[in-house]
Design brief:
17-stranded mixed beta sheet; disordered N terminus
């Protein structure tokens, strides 16, 4: 009887110990959830690291961040690492990166920001952008002054050191216009062409090596500039034209006012020198005629 009671007590202690251990385990798991929850959220937030800002946009440009929902990229919206960016049929967008690099997208253009880091103290960093299709203008910032910045397309790999270039990226062809700077390179199928002279371009067709650099045609550059600058350029021209027209109207009004003032002054000052001369000539002619008449009369009397 006594041994049975001891056994029951032992069994009770074991159950109590199990319940205690289970309680401790639940408490530990709860604490881990509390601690790791914010860390997990912080990790997700870190994947959306800011790399620049939408500096200017027309009609619609949209961005798809790695975690957040798709949004319209109006001026002032932050651009994030790994973000997909695209413009519509009439859209344009300029992205200003933290190091000062400016990247403009024309209409129906798209890209993904694959890699970007920048140290403002040393001006060192790295940049790699995947261009899917469309028109692009690159103006290198501080990173490109120290090392190449990279652009990957379905056809080739393009880099630039400093300066500026325009890119026409098509499904089966890239056309790279080097406007100015240190150099740009175009690489495909293990072959590379380098341009270090402003105003030259390289064309590369999918499945082929890059062609030799050729002087860019003025009409091609003008067309690209119009498509990339677009509305801003037209607005500037319209504003300039309106200012010129206003200036001409103001000048015409001033001239008219001056002429009216001169006329009023002339009328109030009496006869002009020309009028005086005309009057003197008329008197002289009259005197001559009178003299002739007298001579004729004298002859008749004789």
């Amino acid at each position: 009887m006594e041994s049975r009671q001891i056994s029951d007590n032992c069994h009770g202690y074991r159950q109590l110990g199990y319940r205690s251990r289970r309680g401790v385990l639940v408490a530990v798991l709860f604490l881990l959830a509390v601690v790791l929850g914010p860390i997990e959220k912080a990790g997700a937030a870190q994947t959306e690291r800011e790399v620049g800002v939408a500096a200017a946009a027309t009609t619609q440009a949209v961005g798809i961040p790695p975690v957040s929902a798709e949004r319209v990229l109006n001026p002032g919206v932050k651009i994030l690492l790994d973000e997909q960016v695209r413009t519509d049929a009439s859209g344009r967008l300029q992205i200003l990166f933290l190091d000062g690099t400016a990247l403009t997208l024309g209409a129906d253009s798209g890209l993904v920001i694959d890699e970007y880091f920048y140290d403002p103290e040393s001006n060192q960093g790295g940049m790699s952008i995947n261009l899917t299709t469309g028109l692009f203008r690159v103006i290198g910032g501080k990173i490109s002054k120290n090392q190449e910045i990279k652009f990957n397309t379905p056809t080739s790999k393009i880099t630039i050191r400093g300066g500026m270039m325009d890119l026409d990226v098509r499904p089966d062809q890239d056309i790279v216009h080097f406007i100015h700077g240190i150099s740009t390179t175009v690489k495909a199928l293990g072959r590379q062409q380098t341009i270090n002279q402003a105003g030259y371009s390289v064309t590369v067709t999918k499945g082929e090596t890059p062609g030799t650099p050729q002087r860019s045609k003025a009409k091609d550059l003008a067309k690209l500039a119009d498509q990339l600058e677009g509305t801003a350029k037209k607005k500037k021209a319209t504003k300039k034209k309106a200012a010129k027209k206003k200036k001409a109207a103001k000048k015409k009004k001033a001239a008219k006012k001056k002429a009216a003032k001169k006329k009023a002054a002339t009328e109030s000052a009496g006869p002009t020198q020309q009028e005086e001369k005309q009057r003197a000539d008329e008197q002289k002619q009259g005197a001559k005629k009178e003299k002739v008449k007298k001579n004729l009369k004298a002859k008749k009397e004789k």
